[in-house]
Design goal:
Blueprint lengths: L12 H17 L15 H6 L5 H19 L2 H9 L4 H33 L3 H16 L19 H4 L2 H4 L1 H19 L6 H21 L8 E7 L4 H4 L5 H15 L5 E3 L5 E4 L4 H14 L3 E8 L5 E8 L5 E6 L38 E3 L2 E7 L6 H9 L4 E6 L9 H16 L3 E5 L5 E3 L5 E4 L6 E7 L7 H5 L2 H27 L1
Parallel strand pairs: 1-2, 2-4, 3-4, 8-9, 9-10
Antiparallel strand pairs: 1-13, 4-5, 5-6, 7-8, 10-11, 11-12
Helix pairs in contact: 1-3, 3-5, 4-5, 5-6, 6-9, 6-17, 9-10, 12-13
Length: 510
């Protein structure tokens, strides 16, 4: 860390915040769609250089500045979703983005201030503190206030398949840990500081063993006896909920399915492909039920259901080969301010910053549904960005994972590409095929090693055909969850205690 014992401080904004802002820019570039993933291994070096253990407040400010730059570049699409399709005016949409980015930036600020404070109090060097502090904060971000586990540092490596196979044992947090650890070592070497040979060797061994494990694991391929047809209807968000276009929507999915989905074991339509309460519309329901019966297949599609007190449910229906609705899954983890308004009874004004149509209630559990094509774990929209949800549904018996989503909310921004990347990790973590049906893309077939077997562009109308297998294996990560976070906390606590004990020993010696 920069430790300045003189009273003089750099006065210009560039001198005080330049390194932090540079890290913020690189944190944007490592994520999709740019995906300069090797850059992740040096992205935090400038930020580490910007931390000043003798000025905790300045360290906090620099971390916050880096976070603001990073998050504005990563989630700028919030404005598009809120304004273009959520019915919220531009100034309020921008304000929501700024508030959200500021909240997320606090985690980066807490990272910098924690490293500065702990280094000052314990004399434990920053390159040892950085990795465990970072992953603990990533975990917190994915859990606090319903959680937002979006754009973890480890997610930047979704194309680096040999490295990320280890997620089947450790989860994605371990990959973030390795990246930050490398950043810390490079930072110290760049500043010509002493670096522990043991720590450097440990990090090198962890990376090398992860790569060896990954290369070995990638040699495996499953036989894929089942065929899926994923229908991407490309229904614009501006007409999706318009009653005048209801039959046009039904007809489009009907036409695409009969034209290109024949011969499939399972046909999949996206989230709210039928954007209305289908049981109330006899004619539409009749058309939909006819699809699997006439094609000799089964159909999984998103629609709207009715729950208690006539509240809406974001539902997925399974129609068997006889045209019967044999199973229904109702989305559990709803999107705050998109599908419901949190704590609105206490703060009624929050209803004004919630997107149109946000009146859904959650389902009852992340249990798979039994179908003639296996036990299917359903992930509706952003449910799939939460590792604990996929772990839970696999522990409950899911043999294949299906994500249905409607990313039309984000138009042609980076969000659909960022959202897609998470499912590479869900496939690896759980050792399951992931079949992804997105209204406007990206639809995909991803195998249990994270290999993308087929995918569509965004905003195209097409049918993606692919093969998959049902699996009953249980990875170490699925069995034991995020144990690595506990190990990180123990490691961090051990370093702090050892540092403080060593510091007291020095004081007594003096």
């Amino acid at each position: 860390m920069n430790s300045r014992h003189s009273t003089s401080r750099p006065s210009s904004f560039a001198a005080r915040y330049g390194h932090a802002l540079l890290s913020g820019v690189m944190l944007v570039l490592v994520q999709p769609p740019v995906s300069l993933f090797p850059l992740a291994f040096i992205a935090l070096v400038p930020l580490l250089r910007a931390i000043d253990r003798d000025d905790i407040v300045l360290s906090f400010k620099r971390g916050f500045a880096a976070g603001v730059v990073a998050w504005l570049g990563i989630i700028y699409w919030v404005v598009v979703a809120m304004n273009s399709y959520g019915g919220i005016n531009v100034p309020l949409s921008v304000l929501i983005l700024l508030l959200f980015a500021s909240y997320l930036s606090l985690y980066v600020a807490i990272f910098t201030v924690s490293c500065a404070y702990l280094e000052k109090r314990t004399s434990v060097p920053a390159y040892l503190l950085a990795a465990p502090v970072w992953v603990v904060l990533e975990y917190a971000r994915g859990a606090v206030m319903t959680g937002f586990p979006w754009a973890f540092l480890g997610h930047s490596q979704y194309r680096f398949l040999p490295l990320i196979q280890v997620a089947s044992v450790t989860g994605t947090y371990f990959i973030s840990f390795l990246i930050v650890a490398v950043n810390g070592i490079i930072f110290s070497l760049w500043g010509r500081k002493k670096v522990s040979f043991i720590w450097t060797a440990v990090v090198a061994i962890l990376i090398a063993s992860s790569l060896v494990y990954g290369f070995v694991r990638l040699q495996h391929r499953d036989s894929e006896p089942l065929r899926a047809a994923i229908v991407q209807g490309n229904i614009g968000q501006d007409v999706k909920w318009d009653d005048a276009f209801k039959m046009m929507t039904v007809s489009k999915y009907y036409r695409l399915s009969f034209g290109l989905a024949q011969g499939s074991d399972l046909i999949i339509w996206p989230e709210t492909a039928m954007p209305f309460i289908i049981e109330r519309d006899i004619h539409a329901h009749k058309y939909v039920r006819a699809v699997p019966a006439m094609l000799g297949s089964r159909l999984l599609f998103g629609t709207v259901g009715l729950g208690a007190d006539r509240k809406l449910l974001n539902s997925v229906h399974y129609v068997d080969g006889d045209g019967r609705t044999a199973a229904i899954y109702n989305k559990v983890h709803l999107v705050p301010f998109g599908e419901y308004t949190p704590i609105v009874s206490y703060f009624p004004f929050l209803a004004k910053i919630t997107a149109i149509g946000a009146d859904f209630i959650p389902g009852e559990g992340h249990r798979p549904i039994a179908t003639d094509a296996g036990k299917v774990g359903i992930l509706v929209c952003f449910e799939g960005i939460f590792p604990y949800i996929t772990n839970e549904t696999v522990r409950e018996g899911a043999q294949v994972l299906i994500n249905v989503t409607n990313d039309a909310w984000y138009n042609r921004t980076s969000a659909p590409f960022q959202h897609f990347a998470f499912y590479v990790f869900r496939a690896i973590e759980t050792d399951r095929y992931v079949l992804r049906a997105a209204n406007t893309g990206i639809s995909a077939v991803i195998d249990p090693r994270g290999r993308v077997r087929g995918k569509t562009p965004i905003f195209t109308e097409e049918v993606l055909r692919g093969t998959y297998a049902l699996k009953d294996t249980m990875t170490f990560y699925v069995r034991y969850g995020d144990y690595f976070i506990v190990l990180s906390l123990v490691f961090l606590a051990g370093m702090v205690v050892a540092g403080m004990y060593r510091g007291r020993g020095k004081e007594k010696a003096q």
